[in-house]
Amino acid sequence: MIFVGGLPFSSNSSSSSSAPSSQSQPMNLLMALMEHPILVSASHSFKSIQERRVSASMDSDLTMSSNNPKYVYLFQREYATVDPALVHHAKGICGPEGNERMDGYSFPLCTKIVETLQKRQENFHVQTLCVLGHNTKTDSQGNAYPIFSGFLVESSTGSLIPASFDRNSQCPDEIVRRLRVSASYEDPSWHGKLLDTYDTKTDRFIIAPCSWTICLVQIALSLQNLSDSEILSTCSTSPSAEGPDFVDNERRLWNYLIKHPDWKKTFPMRQPRVFERTADGGWKRADSQHLVKDIGYES
């Protein structure tokens, strides 16, 4: 169930103290949340914060409590919960909104998220909802851009900081995790699900397996010789809003697919790829076969 400002929330009234009707429409729920004065104010406050640029070499500046800060980085479609005793920061990245329309992919996604939160038995206290129109700007040509494409969460306080991240900070297993985002649409075991990434109790990244078909490899082969401008226009729903590393990331992804056309080479016996934290806060590959029973992926 969703709470805002300490009160249960429904689409019927932004200040309702009673439980929401089960007949409330998810779209109305999202729109009511977007218009709630507390959340509108929080969005304005969030957008007033200067964006922080984060790189692996700068991580020592992210916290005053440790010389080796520990963080968890998330790509789109990934999710994680963290223990502040183990993780200082969670890093998230969100995609561009593009020319936002009611029938675009972002609106249904946000609708589904708030609908799910409202239906759960747990209480979710929403304090920031800087999405859709609250996180969109347009240039002089009418092209839509996200105001921010990522954020940093301070786990001990829950505070949010707009942020952008270089490639070195997007660890571990960056390219395989990027590939899973694309390949998961072909894998029926991931249909309609967010991607498992991080194990809270053990402070390890557990990259659950995902399969891909030869069709995805053939697509990579057909796209690899395109020019940068052609890649933008062909592969992005919002070419004008992509970051400077979009094309390079796409090429790296295709190269991996071409070199590893069989997903079973990446996930032998459909076992996860496991990464343990090092003493300096980085990550190292663990022996997945040794850890299979421990993390509960035995067949």
Task: Describe this protein with a few key phrases.
single chain; 299 residues; alpha/beta; five-stranded mixed β-sheet; 9 helices; disordered C terminus
Structural commentary:
- There is one protein chain.
- The protein is of the alpha/beta class.
- The protein has a domain of 116 residues.
- It contains 9 helices and 16 strands.
- The protein has a 5-stranded mixed β-sheet, with no helix packed on it. Strands 13-14-15-16 form a 4-stranded antiparallel β-sheet, with helices on one face. A 3-stranded mixed β-sheet has the order 2-1-7.
- Helix 1 packs across helix 3, helix 4 packs across helix 7 and helix 5 packs across helix 7.
- The longest helix has 14 residues.
Short description:
The chain has 299 residues and is an alpha/beta fold. The protein contains 9 helices and 16 strands.
* Overall average residue pLDDT: 82
Give the percentage of residues in beta strands: 15-25%
Structural class: alpha/beta
Terminal CA distance: 35 Å
Poorly predicted regions are: 14-24, 58-66, 95-104, 290-299
Please summarize the sheet with the most strands: 5 strands, mixed
Apparent shape? globular
Radius of gyration: 20 Å
Helicity, as a percent range? 25-40%
Q: What is the N-to-C succession of helices and strands? A: EEHHEEEEHEEEEEHEEEHHHHEEH
Total DSSP E strands: 16
Largest sheet strand order: 3-11-10-6-4
Tally of alpha and pi helices: 9
